[in-house]
Amino acid sequence: MVARVSPKKKLGPTISLGRRAAIIETARAAGLLSGENGRIAARIRQPLIEAAKANSGIQSDSELLEYALACVALEDDFAAKLLAREGSVDKSLDLEF
Question: What pLDDT does 12 receive?
């Protein structure tokens, strides 16, 4: 289920500056922010843009896209790997609960 957020409702930045900086720095260290700048154009629904800007505290469209793309590029598959291990722990192992 997806929560609906009114773009008129002030969310305030919920993503800390430290987290944003860490993601951008990790992307930079991975070489994702080197090389020439490219151009991307898209039609994005205004409520999505407004909610993303409100949630992130980012006002620049370019910075918002760079941050969003860095998040996707750096995303790991931890959840999928964890779920794939379901049932792989020996039932005789004492987990103390």
Answer: 56
Q: How many Å is the Cα radius of gyration of the chain?
A: 19
Residue-averaged pLDDT of the chain: 85
CA distance 48 to 7: 8
71 close to 23: Cβ distance less than 8 angstroms: yes
Q: Report pTM.
A: 0.68
DSSP code string of 33-94:
T-S----------HHHHHHHHHHH----HHHHHHHHHHHHHH---HHHHHHHTTT-S-TTS-
> Is pLDDT above 90 for 30?
yes
**CA-CA distance, 88 to 69, in Å (whole number)?**
34
Q: Which amino acid is at 30?
A: A
Largest CA distance in the chain: 56
